[in-house]
Amino acid sequence: MSFQSVGRFGPVFETCRYGASKLAFRGPKRSLKNEYVAFLGGTETYGKYVEHPYPQRVEAATGLSCVNLGWPNAGIDVMLNDPGFARIASGARLTVLQVPCAANLSNSFYKVHPRRNDRFLKARDPLKKFYPTVDFTEFHFTRHMLARLRDLSCGPFLEVQAELAALWVTGMKRLICNIESPVLLLWFSDRSPDQHCDDPDLRYEPALVSRNMLDAVEKDVAGLVEFNMGGAMRSMDPDFELAEKVLSRFDRQLMRDVPGQMAHDSAAEALIPAMAGLLDP
After folding, report:
1. Which regions of 99-149 does DSSP assign to beta strands (E)?
2. So what's the pLDDT on residue 5?
3. Burial of 99 (0-12, 13-18, 19+ CB in 10 A)
4. What is the sign of the dihedral through the CA atoms of 220, 116, 43 and 180?
5. Do β-strands 183-189 and 223-228 pair in parallel, antiparallel, or remain unpaired?
6. Using CA atoms in the order 262, 264, 269, 270, what is the torsion angle rounded to 10 degrees?
7. 123-145, pLDDT tens digit by residue?
8. C-alpha to C-alpha distance for 174 and 59, rounded to whole angstroms
9. What is residue 113's DSSP assignment?
10. Which residues neighbour 170 within 8 Å (Cβ) at sequence distance 6 or greater?
11. Is residue 111 a contact partner of residue 122, using CB atoms and an 8 Å limit?
Protein backbone atom coordinates (compact mmCIF):
# COMPACT_ATOMS: atom_id res chain seq x y z
CA MET A 1 0.00 0.00 0.00
CA SER A 2 1.85 3.11 -1.22
CA PHE A 3 0.43 6.02 0.75
CA GLN A 4 2.46 9.19 1.23
CA SER A 5 2.36 9.24 5.03
CA VAL A 6 0.23 8.40 8.04
CA GLY A 7 -1.74 11.28 9.53
CA ARG A 8 -4.23 11.73 12.33
CA PHE A 9 -7.00 10.11 10.29
CA GLY A 10 -5.00 7.31 8.69
CA PRO A 11 -3.08 6.97 5.39
CA VAL A 12 -2.51 10.22 3.51
CA PHE A 13 -2.93 9.89 -0.26
CA GLU A 14 -2.47 12.52 -2.94
CA THR A 15 -5.42 14.91 -2.94
CA CYS A 16 -6.65 17.58 -5.33
CA ARG A 17 -9.34 20.23 -5.72
CA TYR A 18 -11.80 20.92 -8.53
CA GLY A 19 -13.40 24.24 -9.37
CA ALA A 20 -15.37 25.95 -6.63
CA SER A 21 -15.52 22.91 -4.36
CA LYS A 22 -14.13 23.42 -0.87
CA LEU A 23 -13.26 19.73 -0.51
CA ALA A 24 -9.98 17.95 -1.17
CA PHE A 25 -10.73 14.88 -3.28
CA ARG A 26 -8.65 11.77 -3.93
CA GLY A 27 -6.00 12.33 -6.60
CA PRO A 28 -4.44 12.18 -9.04
CA LYS A 29 -6.24 15.20 -10.50
CA ARG A 30 -7.99 14.76 -13.84
CA SER A 31 -8.72 17.40 -16.47
CA LEU A 32 -12.31 18.60 -16.74
CA LYS A 33 -11.74 20.00 -20.22
CA ASN A 34 -11.95 16.65 -21.99
CA GLU A 35 -14.60 13.93 -21.72
CA TYR A 36 -14.77 12.23 -18.35
CA VAL A 37 -16.92 10.12 -16.04
CA ALA A 38 -17.63 11.50 -12.57
CA PHE A 39 -17.75 9.26 -9.49
CA LEU A 40 -19.64 10.59 -6.47
CA GLY A 41 -19.72 8.72 -3.19
CA GLY A 42 -18.40 8.20 0.29
CA THR A 43 -15.57 6.29 1.93
CA GLU A 44 -15.63 3.46 -0.61
CA THR A 45 -15.43 5.82 -3.60
CA TYR A 46 -12.63 7.79 -1.98
CA GLY A 47 -10.81 4.54 -1.24
CA LYS A 48 -9.36 5.55 2.10
CA TYR A 49 -7.46 2.33 2.78
CA VAL A 50 -6.76 1.06 -0.75
CA GLU A 51 -4.14 2.09 -3.26
CA HIS A 52 -6.44 1.85 -6.28
CA PRO A 53 -10.11 2.71 -5.57
CA TYR A 54 -12.65 1.44 -8.06
CA PRO A 55 -12.80 4.67 -10.15
CA GLN A 56 -9.08 4.19 -10.88
CA ARG A 57 -9.68 0.55 -11.78
CA VAL A 58 -12.44 1.56 -14.20
CA GLU A 59 -10.12 4.12 -15.78
CA ALA A 60 -7.29 1.61 -16.16
CA ALA A 61 -9.59 -0.98 -17.74
CA THR A 62 -11.50 1.30 -20.11
CA GLY A 63 -9.24 4.25 -20.86
CA LEU A 64 -11.99 6.63 -19.74
CA SER A 65 -10.92 9.64 -17.72
CA CYS A 66 -12.47 9.08 -14.27
CA VAL A 67 -12.86 11.97 -11.83
CA ASN A 68 -13.03 10.71 -8.25
CA LEU A 69 -15.34 12.92 -6.18
CA GLY A 70 -15.46 10.52 -3.27
CA TRP A 71 -15.50 12.09 0.20
CA PRO A 72 -15.08 9.99 3.37
CA ASN A 73 -18.44 9.35 5.07
CA ALA A 74 -20.24 11.63 2.61
CA GLY A 75 -23.99 11.83 2.99
CA ILE A 76 -26.50 13.58 0.79
CA ASP A 77 -26.07 16.79 2.82
CA VAL A 78 -22.49 17.46 1.75
CA MET A 79 -23.22 16.51 -1.87
CA LEU A 80 -26.09 18.99 -2.00
CA ASN A 81 -24.37 21.80 -0.14
CA ASP A 82 -20.95 21.77 -1.80
CA PRO A 83 -21.17 23.43 -5.24
CA GLY A 84 -18.53 21.17 -6.75
CA PHE A 85 -20.42 17.89 -6.77
CA ALA A 86 -23.33 18.73 -9.06
CA ARG A 87 -21.38 21.18 -11.21
CA ILE A 88 -18.56 18.75 -12.02
CA ALA A 89 -20.94 15.82 -12.41
CA SER A 90 -23.08 17.84 -14.80
CA GLY A 91 -20.11 18.24 -17.13
CA ALA A 92 -19.46 14.51 -17.30
CA ARG A 93 -20.63 12.08 -19.94
CA LEU A 94 -21.91 9.89 -17.10
CA THR A 95 -22.07 10.13 -13.32
CA VAL A 96 -21.67 7.05 -11.13
CA LEU A 97 -23.28 7.77 -7.75
CA GLN A 98 -22.49 5.38 -4.90
CA VAL A 99 -25.69 4.95 -2.88
CA PRO A 100 -25.19 7.00 0.33
CA CYS A 101 -26.45 5.96 3.74
CA ALA A 102 -29.53 7.53 5.35
CA ALA A 103 -28.09 7.91 8.86
CA ASN A 104 -25.87 10.86 7.97
CA LEU A 105 -28.61 13.42 7.35
CA SER A 106 -29.60 16.40 9.46
CA ASN A 107 -33.28 16.13 10.36
CA SER A 108 -35.83 17.27 12.90
CA PHE A 109 -34.37 14.88 15.51
CA TYR A 110 -30.62 15.55 15.26
CA LYS A 111 -27.99 17.57 13.41
CA VAL A 112 -24.89 16.24 11.63
CA HIS A 113 -21.68 18.03 10.67
CA PRO A 114 -22.15 19.82 7.32
CA ARG A 115 -19.04 18.20 5.77
CA ARG A 116 -18.22 15.20 7.94
CA ASN A 117 -21.76 13.90 7.75
CA ASP A 118 -21.08 10.90 10.01
CA ARG A 119 -20.35 13.27 12.91
CA PHE A 120 -23.25 13.73 15.31
CA LEU A 121 -23.44 17.36 16.49
CA LYS A 122 -26.53 17.67 18.65
CA ALA A 123 -29.92 16.23 19.48
CA ARG A 124 -32.98 18.39 18.85
CA ASP A 125 -35.88 18.72 21.28
CA PRO A 126 -38.13 16.00 19.73
CA LEU A 127 -35.36 13.41 20.17
CA LYS A 128 -34.66 14.55 23.72
CA LYS A 129 -38.34 14.10 24.54
CA PHE A 130 -38.27 10.58 23.09
CA TYR A 131 -35.21 9.68 25.19
CA PRO A 132 -35.23 11.92 28.30
CA THR A 133 -32.67 9.83 30.20
CA VAL A 134 -30.04 9.76 27.43
CA ASP A 135 -26.98 11.98 27.67
CA PHE A 136 -26.43 12.87 24.01
CA THR A 137 -23.09 14.56 24.71
CA GLU A 138 -21.48 11.12 24.85
CA PHE A 139 -22.12 10.50 21.13
CA HIS A 140 -19.76 11.62 18.40
CA PHE A 141 -21.00 9.51 15.47
CA THR A 142 -24.48 9.04 14.04
CA ARG A 143 -24.39 5.25 13.87
CA HIS A 144 -23.24 4.88 17.47
CA MET A 145 -26.07 7.14 18.60
CA LEU A 146 -28.73 5.45 16.47
CA ALA A 147 -27.67 1.96 17.52
CA ARG A 148 -27.96 2.93 21.18
CA LEU A 149 -31.39 4.50 20.67
CA ARG A 150 -32.66 1.45 18.82
CA ASP A 151 -31.53 -0.80 21.66
CA LEU A 152 -33.16 1.45 24.28
CA SER A 153 -36.57 1.79 22.62
CA CYS A 154 -37.59 0.51 19.21
CA GLY A 155 -40.77 2.60 18.86
CA PRO A 156 -39.17 6.06 18.86
CA PHE A 157 -36.29 4.73 16.77
CA LEU A 158 -38.74 3.68 14.06
CA GLU A 159 -40.10 7.23 13.92
CA VAL A 160 -36.60 8.58 13.46
CA GLN A 161 -35.89 5.96 10.83
CA ALA A 162 -39.09 6.81 8.93
CA GLU A 163 -38.12 10.48 8.75
CA LEU A 164 -34.61 9.60 7.62
CA ALA A 165 -36.03 7.41 4.84
CA ALA A 166 -38.31 10.20 3.61
CA LEU A 167 -35.48 12.76 3.71
CA TRP A 168 -33.17 10.36 1.90
CA VAL A 169 -35.60 9.91 -0.98
CA THR A 170 -36.26 13.66 -1.23
CA GLY A 171 -32.55 14.46 -1.04
CA MET A 172 -31.60 11.84 -3.63
CA LYS A 173 -34.22 13.12 -6.06
CA ARG A 174 -32.96 16.66 -5.61
CA LEU A 175 -29.32 15.62 -6.04
CA ILE A 176 -30.05 13.59 -9.17
CA CYS A 177 -32.12 16.45 -10.59
CA ASN A 178 -29.18 18.81 -10.05
CA ILE A 179 -26.89 16.58 -12.11
CA GLU A 180 -27.35 17.15 -15.83
CA SER A 181 -25.53 14.01 -16.98
CA PRO A 182 -27.09 10.51 -16.80
CA VAL A 183 -26.74 9.01 -13.31
CA LEU A 184 -25.87 5.37 -12.69
CA LEU A 185 -26.36 4.25 -9.09
CA LEU A 186 -23.85 1.88 -7.51
CA TRP A 187 -24.84 -0.26 -4.54
CA PHE A 188 -21.45 -1.05 -2.96
CA SER A 189 -22.18 -3.08 0.14
CA ASP A 190 -21.76 -6.22 2.19
CA ARG A 191 -25.53 -6.79 2.07
CA SER A 192 -28.38 -6.69 -0.42
CA PRO A 193 -30.94 -3.86 -0.28
CA ASP A 194 -33.41 -6.40 1.12
CA GLN A 195 -31.34 -7.29 4.21
CA HIS A 196 -30.43 -5.49 7.46
CA CYS A 197 -32.29 -2.36 6.32
CA ASP A 198 -33.10 -1.40 9.92
CA ASP A 199 -29.57 -1.74 11.31
CA PRO A 200 -27.43 1.43 11.58
CA ASP A 201 -24.26 -0.60 12.15
CA LEU A 202 -21.25 0.31 10.00
CA ARG A 203 -21.15 -3.28 8.74
CA TYR A 204 -24.42 -2.75 6.89
CA GLU A 205 -23.60 0.27 4.77
CA PRO A 206 -25.39 2.09 3.26
CA ALA A 207 -27.05 2.30 6.67
CA LEU A 208 -30.86 2.33 6.83
CA VAL A 209 -31.33 2.25 3.03
CA SER A 210 -33.89 -0.28 1.81
CA ARG A 211 -35.13 -1.68 -1.47
CA ASN A 212 -38.24 0.49 -1.24
CA MET A 213 -36.09 3.59 -1.00
CA LEU A 214 -34.10 2.58 -4.07
CA ASP A 215 -37.34 1.86 -5.94
CA ALA A 216 -38.54 5.38 -5.12
CA VAL A 217 -35.66 6.95 -7.08
CA GLU A 218 -35.30 4.31 -9.79
CA LYS A 219 -37.19 6.26 -12.44
CA ASP A 220 -34.88 9.26 -11.89
CA VAL A 221 -31.68 7.42 -12.81
CA ALA A 222 -30.26 5.65 -15.84
CA GLY A 223 -29.63 2.40 -13.99
CA LEU A 224 -28.57 0.60 -10.83
CA VAL A 225 -25.62 -1.74 -10.36
CA GLU A 226 -25.89 -3.92 -7.26
CA PHE A 227 -22.51 -5.11 -6.07
CA ASN A 228 -22.58 -7.27 -2.94
CA MET A 229 -18.93 -7.76 -2.10
CA GLY A 230 -19.28 -10.35 0.65
CA GLY A 231 -17.32 -10.24 3.90
CA ALA A 232 -14.41 -12.16 2.41
CA MET A 233 -13.51 -9.11 0.32
CA ARG A 234 -12.89 -6.85 3.29
CA SER A 235 -9.30 -5.75 3.86
CA MET A 236 -7.81 -8.23 1.41
CA ASP A 237 -4.89 -6.03 0.46
CA PRO A 238 -1.55 -7.66 -0.37
CA ASP A 239 0.21 -5.08 1.80
CA PHE A 240 -2.12 -5.46 4.79
CA GLU A 241 0.73 -6.72 6.98
CA LEU A 242 2.70 -3.55 6.20
CA ALA A 243 -0.33 -1.41 7.00
CA GLU A 244 -0.72 -3.26 10.30
CA LYS A 245 2.74 -2.06 11.30
CA VAL A 246 2.37 1.62 10.45
CA LEU A 247 -1.30 2.39 11.20
CA SER A 248 -2.77 3.19 14.59
CA ARG A 249 -4.89 0.61 16.38
CA PHE A 250 -7.99 2.67 15.57
CA ASP A 251 -7.13 2.80 11.87
CA ARG A 252 -6.31 -0.90 11.74
CA GLN A 253 -9.82 -1.66 12.97
CA LEU A 254 -11.36 0.74 10.47
CA MET A 255 -9.33 -0.83 7.70
CA ARG A 256 -10.79 -4.22 8.56
CA ASP A 257 -14.30 -2.77 8.34
CA VAL A 258 -14.05 -1.27 4.84
CA PRO A 259 -13.75 -2.95 1.43
CA GLY A 260 -10.27 -4.06 0.46
CA GLN A 261 -8.55 -3.91 -2.91
CA MET A 262 -10.18 -7.11 -4.16
CA ALA A 263 -13.63 -5.63 -3.51
CA HIS A 264 -12.72 -2.46 -5.40
CA ASP A 265 -11.44 -4.52 -8.33
CA SER A 266 -14.67 -6.52 -8.42
CA ALA A 267 -16.82 -3.38 -8.12
CA ALA A 268 -15.08 -1.95 -11.17
CA GLU A 269 -15.73 -5.19 -13.10
CA ALA A 270 -19.41 -5.01 -12.17
CA LEU A 271 -19.69 -1.38 -13.25
CA ILE A 272 -17.97 -1.53 -16.63
CA PRO A 273 -20.67 -3.39 -18.61
CA ALA A 274 -23.43 -1.06 -17.31
CA MET A 275 -21.33 1.99 -18.06
CA ALA A 276 -20.56 0.75 -21.56
CA GLY A 277 -24.26 0.33 -22.29
CA LEU A 278 -24.93 3.95 -21.27
CA LEU A 279 -21.88 5.50 -22.92
CA ASP A 280 -22.15 3.59 -26.20
CA PRO A 281 -25.69 2.26 -26.54
Report:
1. 110-112, 120-123
2. 47
3. buried
4. positive
5. parallel
6. 120
7. 999 999 999 999 999 999 999 99
8. 28
9. -
10. none
11. yes
